[in-house]
Write a structure and sequence with these properties.
Layout lengths: L11 E4 L4 E4 L4 E6 L20 E6 L4 E6 L6 E6 L4 E7 L20 E10 L2 E8 L10 E6 L2 E6 L2 E7 L5 E2 L5 E7 L4 E10 L15 H20 L8 H13 L31 E2 L3 H10 L3 H15 L9 E2 L10 E2 L13 E2 L10 H19 L8 H17 L18 H18 L7 H21 L23 H4 L8 H13 L1 E2 L2 E2 L15 E2 H13 L3 H12 L11 E2 L6 E2 L5 H23 L2
Antiparallel strand pairs: 1-2, 2-3, 3-4, 4-9, 5-6, 6-7, 7-8, 8-15, 9-14, 10-11, 11-12, 12-15, 13-14, 16-17, 18-19, 20-21, 22-23, 23-24
Length: 625
């Protein structure tokens, strides 16, 4: 097996909404976090070829490879074809539907399990297994002990893993690695189960209890396929881009914590925005800025329960003092996300530093307040539309009021902005836009209360109108007529495409049309859109084109009536999805290489919303609406 880093697009994503893993094109699990998405990975070879650890199953002979997800599921099949025959490796993080709550996931036993089933279609084919976990981001090489020729325990520090394998005999090489080879005949299957434990929870005196019979493993695979197929069948989108939308929805579900409802931004940490660069961040957290887009995407696809769960997570997490609101939180609502660097890891293709935690957690981003109020507003309107009870308890209403009051107090302050620049605060247009959203949606929510405070609402309206005046007079380039990155600036920023998407002005407003054209001409290359021109953002190096910005541009094109232009661009962008429909955070517009963390919720959310915009506008045209 080579030591070169595969392209980011070579990876596939699997999840049980508790644990997640990335599997490379050659059958190697090179990133896996068990128990929680943000836990220390058991395999992290994607960040260091030597220290990271991996778990590979593949033929020993040269092969050709192809892969797919099994229908509309997050179950992966990788087929290897050799001169002597072919085998398929099916990778499953098992889950099942709760027997009493059909829209929930039942607890699993064991909880942290990866199943790999190797099936021989024709042959014979010799296959090899290499399992080399590394704990604590590669700092701990476990001791490997063979209990029998088909069972191994690998333990170190606070971690323990058990490998149960039909590929035998297992051998331990003294370096924390377990290997095996066997020849499979046509029509046979080898089951491999890998289970992660806290070391204290594994009773090594009774490892027979850790064994799972093969029929039970087959049942778990079948239950997992049933769960995902049932979940996918709930999708109400039937437009022309259904396959892309469905895969994106499955990614969002796979990035959703079954226990809390939080949706993390991406499955990984520190995959670089520029190869060899320093823009490497931990994205295994939940940003409030994603809230409304995620809620809209889920509801518009018919996933009301997931939207409710995420809305409840936002509500719980942001409860408390409005002046203590922060831009991002941990999966369980944790606030302290201190950033540390792991200097012992090389980073993906020598892109250092590798970071755990995210130092942006305590930045001031004004847009966050607008996202919280808009999320509450959207959930409320969705419940009203579905004739469900609306939560108008005193605590919830007070929190919205306090958030809006905080916007009234701070809207005229500069901030770090949506892109979390580290080059100093500015009066970003998007931040002011979301301050306007906070006031507008706050007024609308207050009107639903039985006895709204009219004096307070009048003051909100005055501030809202002042923000509008400032944006319209100071955030429009007098020469181009386009919205600009910041008040008093002439720089472009793709986030200004949100001005019409947030309902600030109509899509046919000349300033919107000018913004679309300017962003398309100056920030877009080969159909892919950059966030902004990165000079002066306080960080060294550059970055790729930002996928969500590209989809914002497409959505704005569609909603402004340029449907054919949007369709053409959409088709151009989805060509950059990898072979199984996944997208990273960014794409190099010259090489097409995926960059940044993977798969990225923001990118797939953007795809869904762009497809919905195209379909909705097309439907309105055909009906004359």
């Amino acid at each position: 097996m080579g030591s070169e880093f595969p392209p980011i697009s070579d990876y596939a994503f699997i999840s049980d909404c508790r644990s997640l893993a990335l599997v490379s094109l050659d059958g190697s699990v090179e990133w896996a976090c068990f128990g929680r998405f943000d836990s220390d990975p058991v395999f992290s070879r994607i960040l260091d070829r030597d220290k990271g650890g991996y778990f590979r199953i593949a033929p020993t002979a040269p092969y050709r490879v192809e892969r797919r997800y099994v229908g509309d599921t997050n179950v992966l099949e990788t087929r290897f074809r050799t001169d002597s025959g072919s085998v398929t490796v099916t990778d499953v993080l098992p889950l099942r539907t709760h027997p009493d709550r059909p829209h929930r996931i039942a607890p699993s036993d064991p909880a942290d399990l990866l199943i790999r089933v190797v099936t021989c279609e024709d042959g014979p084919v010799e296959v090899e297994l290499t399992c080399a976990p590394r704990f604590d981001y590669g700092l701990t090489t476990p001791a490997a002990r063979l209990e029998s020729d088909d069972l191994a325990v690998m333990m170190g520090a606070a971690h323990a893993t058990v490998l149960q394998s039909d590929i035998t005999p297992l051998q331990a090489d003294g370096s924390g690695r377990v290997t095996a080879r066997t020849t499979l005949e046509p029509g046979t299957a080898a089951h491999v189960a890998f289970t992660s434990y806290d070391a204290a929870d594994l009773d090594t005196a009774d490892l027979d209890a850790a064994r799972i019979p093969n029929p039970d493993l087959d049942t778990m695979v079948a239950e997992t396929l049933d769960f995902w197929n049932t979940w996918s069948a709930r999708c109400t989108y039937t437009g022309p881009h259904r396959d892309d939308v469905m895969r994106s929805a499955l990614v969002l579900k796979g990035l959703t914590s079954a226990s809390t409802g939080a949706v993390i931004a991406a499955a990984t940490t520190s995959l670089p925005e520029e190869i060899g660069g320093v823009r490497n961040w931990d994205y295994r957290f939940t940003w409030l800025r994603d809230s409304v887009g995620l809620l809209v995407a889920l509801v518009r696809l018919g996933y009301f329960e997931e939207a409710e769960d995420f809305g409840q997570w936002v509500r719980r997490t942001t409860a408390g003092r409005a002046d203590e609101l922060q831009i991002m939180y941990g999966i369980g609502g944790e606030r302290l996300l201190h950033e540390v660097t792991l200097d012992h890891l090389s980073g993906y293709r020598d892109s250092q530093p590798v970071r755990v935690g995210n130092g942006a957690w305590d930045q001031f981003q004004l847009d966050t307040f607008g996202e919280v109020v808009a999320a509450t507003w959207f959930v409320t309107l969705n419940r009203l539309a579905r004739e469900l009870p609306v939560q108008t308890d005193a605590a919830g209403a007070a929190m919205v009021r306090d958030v809006v009051d905080e916007v009234v107090r701070r809207w005229d302050e500069p901030d770090e902005g949506i892109w979390e620049v580290r080059g100093g605060r500015q009066h970003f247009t998007f931040s002011k836009l979301m301050a306007w959203v906070a006031l507008q949606r706050g007024i609308e929510l207050a009107e639903l209360l039985p006895d709204p405070d009219r004096e307070r609402l009048a003051h909100y309206a005055e501030v809202r109108d002042e923000i509008r005046r400032r944006i319209e007079t100071e955030a429009v380039d007098p020469e181009t007529g386009a919205f600009t990155q910041a008040l008093g600036s002439r720089e472009l920023d793709a986030s200004t495409l949100q001005v019409p998407l947030q309902g600030f002005v109509a899509f046919d407003d000349p300033r919107v049309l000018a913004t679309i054209d300017e962003v398309d001409e100056h920030l877009t290359h080969n159909g892919l859109t950059f966030r902004y021109l990165s000079e002066g953002d306080g960080l060294a190096g550059g970055e790729g084109a930002f996928v969500i910005c590209t989809f914002w541009l497409i959505a704005a094109m569609a909603r402004s009536g340029q449907v054919e232009r949007a369709e053409q661009r959409f088709a151009q962008v989805v060509e950059h999805c990898n072979d199984i429909g996944l997208l990273a955070e960014e794409i190099d517009p010259v090489t097409g290489e995926h960059l940044g963390n993977f798969p990225q919720a923001f990118s797939h959310m953007g795809l869904i919303l762009a497809a919905l915009a195209i379909t909705q506008t097309g439907d309105e045209r055909s009906t004359g609406a």
